[in-house]
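Researcher: I've been going back and forth with a colleague about how Receptor-like serine/threonine-protein kinase might be arranged in three dimensions. Neither of us has a model we trust, so I'd like an independent prediction. The organism is Brachypodium distachyon, in case that matters for your notes. Sequence below.
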Amino acid sequence: MRQCASSSSSSSSGQHTLGTGSSMSVEDHARPFLVSPDGTFSCGFLEAGDNAYYFSIWFTATENRTAVWTANLGDPVNGRLSSISFGHDGKLALADANGTTVWDSKTGGSKGKQLTVSLLDTGNLVIADAGRAAAWVWQSFDWPTDTLLPSQPLTKDKKLVAGYYTLYYDNDNVLRLLYDGPDIASIYWPNPDRDVFGNGRTKYNSSRVGVLDDTGVFLSSDNLRVQASDQGVPGVKRRLTIEQDGNVRIYSLNNNGTTGSAAPGAWTVTWAAVQQPCSVHGLCGKNAVCQYQPSFRCSCLPGHVMADPRDGRKGCVPTFNVTAANCSEVAPERFTFVKVAYTDFYGYDLGYNESVTFGYCRNICLRMCLCTAFSYRLDGSGKCYPKSVLFNGYTSSVFPGSIYLKVPSDNNNLNAGSAAAPPPSTGLACKSNGSLAPRYPQRTYVMPSNGPNWTYFFAFATALGVVELLFVAAAWWFLSGMESVPSSLQAGYRMVMASQFRRFSYRELKSATGNFKEELGRGGSGVVYRGVLDKNDTTAVVAVKKLTDNVTQSDEEFWAEVTVLGRINHINLVRIWGFCSERKHKLLVYEHVENESLDRHLFGAGIGMGGRTLAWGERYRIALGAARGLAYLHHECLEWVIHCDVKPENILLTRDLDAKIADFGLAKLSGRDSAGVHLAQMRGTAGYMAPEWALGLPVDAKVDVYSYGIVLLEIVMGSRVSDQTTADGGEPIELWQIAQALRQVVASGDVTSLVDGRLQGQFNPRQAMEMVKISLSCMEERSSNRPTMDDISKALTACDDEDEHPAYLS
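Model: Here is an independent structure prediction for Receptor-like serine/threonine-protein kinase. You can compare it with whatever you and your colleague have in mind.
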């Protein structure tokens, strides 16, 4: 307080503006270098530790000098012989004791100028040309550190930083908080589990600017509007600051006792971006759990110890090893699981499955050598998240799930102090296909808590959930395996199982489509019509697929498509909204995808784009999106899903030209351990069908890989592969001839001759060559020699990091 009083008294006589040649030594840190005209702000040397000082700006009347801007953040100068000077060259410079300049304003070259340095009433330190009105050549507002002052704009070129945490505008124009630590980086505000609009933001304003005004309101161009709890109170000084705990807060300075019960000169928090401290990422490090009850602390998972007992942010290390040396040698019987109740870890999912049993989820993790744990939730349906690494952990008594840590079966070195484990269960449990699988023992731990004990409540809820899942599984078993069940009983079961969708009547869909008036497309399994549904005074455009009679002779394909599509959800897959099943009428209701199918754009007039051809960047994004959608079907669904008819007509494009794979009427399920399936009839479209179909061999997911390879080549060429002819325009070129030509292109290293001429040479050569190589590998006659869709997705993603600007070739 004595130092503050000294600072205040000196500020009253401090200078507001200095000319060139002015300087101050660090030994004079008790007085400010400059003071704003109204005395609100001071700037000068601020103590940063033992004999260390920063050159900063602070509020004069605070009980401790809280910096709002610092020139040399992270690089303090010596408490002796250091100085700040405004040289004759017009440069404001900070020198350390040895004369080394640690920071300067880079404003040299004052010839013909009358430069001055001033501290304004806004807290802005400016260098200006006194000979010209409002001619600022440098200002501290352009170089924020961790604080934003009223009227100081935060723009796309600026950010607030505190340690590993950053407040910044992302490239989609949304203001976000990012944790960028030594091991991971992730966004945690606004809520990453919601999309932009679900968080009340918008990405359709590219101005990227946010401002805190004098009344306590912070407005951002992404539709964010927040206000201090004392908003509108006159004369209150405020600041918006990002802090070392990852939170952003608005502080109000209490000068007259009107802000809460704080003493004059103290700061009061009047708004915070993150309400739950453990929602901030990176607070506790790897394998550690954040708890707030009510004070913050980090705890290790069972079987783990702190990497650094003095710093919880460095996380925890296991006392055991669950990673197999070779993924092909994973032995499930070697492992068990430890349940950590009411706990979850954000991100790093190896997959996502919904409406699955606990046993199914556990077995997924057992079979994956990279899986270190899995999260299982019962919040309406069983949700399964296998995890590769465990970051951003938190415990909450209201979280409707638990994390199950994978540990060696013979491991006895678990942390002491956890809740007592129940005796391991033994015996057999049914897998989802009805076969028997070993039931692996499991131990349960509850993270230490000072809050209410919800164990019995959640145990009861979990028991109810298990009963419900067993009922659901039994219902499916009856539907798929008991032909003798009466049709009326089957209808009842189906109504229960279809509750996750909306069941439409045929009359509703006939009315929605205007008696099936506007056709969007057709294929071997049916015709798709445009429909409009009315609901709660709003309308939604949908696509209604009316299955053909030859398909509806059996319910097989109809129910296969409903059950498959209803359980999956991916940005590159068309979403099903509902269905109709009335006697011979079988219909499916899909989301409407605005820009029609890829074939219209590759081989047609460019629907919805004024007749222009697809640009290279758009083609590459479509190819990557389709690959990711198929990779999800093949590797991440409840079962392997084989599409069986991959072609441009079944790749739909959104308004932003993102790919969505459609038409799962030919989809088949194949067990993960199956060597292949025999289908009763040939599937697919000529020109895109793998050799297995013609040879009558069992098919697996590699038939989709083959078809995708053809589509990928067509995206590069801009024409049908099946339309290619010999040089004299005679016979169609055989596929082996096309493969031979592709090998020659790859060997030459020049892909220009293959790329669609309508692009006029504007494409990325490396991306094009990668696509040709992938296409060639997909066309291998032996399916075992073809890559997986996961391999393809990763290869295309790696090339997607290339410069977005196309190469211009002559």
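Researcher: What would you highlight for our discussion?
Model: I'd start with this: The CA atoms of residues 77 and 761 lie 56 Å apart. After that, consider the following. The two ends are 73 Å apart (CA to CA).
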